[in-house]
């Protein structure tokens, strides 16, 4: 059976299919840090028809297939499985159209997010989706994970940036629905099934992205606040004064800020004093002077009321980039910390301070040498916690740390994943955030679309093991 399957794959996909040592190691894993797996075959599709042929063959021969984008996912969703096919979209990287009247961009799934952002800006428009992995992650991966990032507070998650999509179903059927209209209530909004389902229901091949008016500029402020409650007052004031122009409100606890600025010589500490919590605010209104003036108003009031102890309004883009560099240094964890257990939980914003205190205290009590860093997209109720236990070396107690953190998250009524998704890493814990009825419905949808359980087998849904 495997022999027939591989022959058919070779016949139908020709030079776009790779086997054995010809499969580069980068396709063996994503950023989750799990053990790499070399797939049976790698297909690097160039067209939607290639994707369709691959899925049809996998469906017929009941061979599992893992969709892959830029492989920056942190949940193990794009890690291939042994004996299965890895299906990479990285060669489907054309920008097919920019429509400046409709403010849309039609892209293939393999376009890197950063390329889509720059192309929109060159056309005088703006793509509101942004995340640290922008130059490595691909649009298909962003949509299938319903990615969040730095500007959700203003523009929403990836879902809000999509008007139309083309998807290939597990049996190879191509569903082309490249709608460009803002309003279209003709029947079910099918694209929503595939956005955020982490490649378990279909493979995204093309998308129509919704673009925004380009902000005149993005003014940044960096603040040191005495404590979490003061920071919440600052958030309320920023929302009130900046309104829809508030594009980011990113928070770093001292555990994160001190560790990163202390360990990375390229990063500059903004203040000589220590503060209780650090905030990056970005204001992207229509007028550059107003942007800065409004930020000054927010900071003036906050300093007067004691919500902010110190603040910087950078004088140049370069200075602003230096301030953002600390927040964006998350890509350096691997080098600085070694193996980590990482979280992207969500909790109601007012509970986030209590949760960080509880998590940092509980982890240090249990593992006294633990290094735990807390930061987050606080305006979106999304907290990150990254942890390494130096004394555990390569044998990190992932399960014990995860259970400890998720238990505290559950007590605050939170979610185990706000943006990275479930993949493999969080699959055993999905039941903490979803009811049995919700899980059963997810299982029914999966079975209806993928009766042989071949597409991204074993990911997301408990009981979907191959
Ligand atoms: C430094 C860094 C910063 C990050 N910051 C953020 C952040 O702020 N917010 C955030 O949400 N995430 C963040 N991430 C996580 C990651 O970048 C996102 O999850 C991203 O959306 C994954 O895109 P990708 O192309 O790399 O997908 P991959 O990792 O290749 O795949 C992710 C999932 O999508 C599936 N998939 C991929 N392509 C397709 C497709 N075309 N059709 C169907 N399924 C597909 C895969 O099977 C897998 O389940 C960060 C990661 C890093 C390394």
Automatic annotation (TrEMBL):
Signal peptide: none annotated. Residues 35-214 form the FAD-binding PCMH-type domain. Its cofactor is FAD. InterPro entries: FAD-bd_oxidored_4_C, FAD-bd_PCMH, FAD-bd_PCMH-like_sf, FAD-bd_PCMH_sub2, FAD-linked_Oxase-like_C, FAD-oxidored/transferase_4, Oxid_FAD_bind_N, Vanillyl_alc_oxidase_C-sub2. Gene3D superfamilies: 3.30.465.10, 3.30.70.2190, 3.30.70.2740, Vanillyl-alcohol Oxidase, Chain A, domain 4. Keywords: FAD, Flavoprotein, Oxidoreductase. It holds the Pfam family FAD-oxidase_C. It comes from the Bacteria. Belongs to the FAD-binding oxidoreductase/transferase type 4 family. This is FAD-binding oxidoreductase.
